[in-house]
Automatic annotation (TrEMBL):
Keywords: Cell shape, Cell wall biogenesis/degradation, Glycosyltransferase, Hydrolase, Peptidoglycan synthesis, Transferase
Gene Ontology cellular-component annotations: extracellular region
Name of the molecule in the record: L,D-transpeptidase
Family the entry assigns: Belongs to the YkuD family.
Pathway: Cell wall biogenesis; peptidoglycan biosynthesis
Highest taxon above the source species: Bacteria
Residues of the active site: H124, C140
Keyword Calcium belongs to the record: no
Organism: Alkalimarinus sediminis
Any matching Pfam family: YkuD
């Protein structure tokens, strides 16, 4: 499991489409990501990626295989494949691991109509066929499955996440 290092933080750069894991010494790793097609924004039902200071509120998927499919934060028992994608063309695929985010700034990204957690904003795995470095999500932060698994194993509930 994660080594509970409180000096860790995550920086998500919407402009550069990167997620960087940092500790007190500097950069540990940097990943290509995909944020919202609709751009940055905090409003409920906007389909935008929220900005500001967040924390990881919940970590979901420990022990699940890579490409495990999640619906409503629960594993369905399915493993993502091209055939499954063809069967369900409208699904927004949430795969492998979920880091569920919560805003920490009331009125900015927490409570009321701007609540990141109530908007179900995650950092999660996505099909390998999906491009990275291009904003295409419905608000979440998408990562390659191997990358989200690696990140998941290094962070813990309470890890700071800054989205700008």
């Amino acid at each position: 499991m994660a080594h509970q290092d409180s000096s860790l933080s995550i920086k998500v750069d919407i402009q550069d489409q990167t997620l960087t894991l940092l500790d007190h010494k500097g950069v540990l790793s940097c990943y290509r990501i995909s944020t919202a097609l609709n751009g940055a924004g905090e409003a409920a039902n906007s389909g935008c990626t929220p900005r500001g200071e967040h924390i990881i509120r919940a970590m979901i998927g420990q022990g699940q295989p890579q490409n495990a499919v999640f619906v409503a934060r629960r594993p369905t028992g399915e493993i993502y494949s091209a055939a499954l994608a063809e069967q369900y063309p409208q699904r927004d695929w949430i795969l492998t691991r979920i880091l569920w985010l919560s805003g920490t700034q009331p009125g900015v990204n927490r409570l009321g109509t701007v609540d990141t957690m109530r908007r179900y904003i995650y950092i999660h795995g996505t099909p390998d066929s999906e491009p990275m470095g291009v904003p295409l999500s419905h608000g979440c932060i998408r990562m390659r499955n191997s990358d989200i698994e690696e990140l998941f194993n290094q962070v813990s509930v309470g890890t700071r996440v800054i989205i700008s």
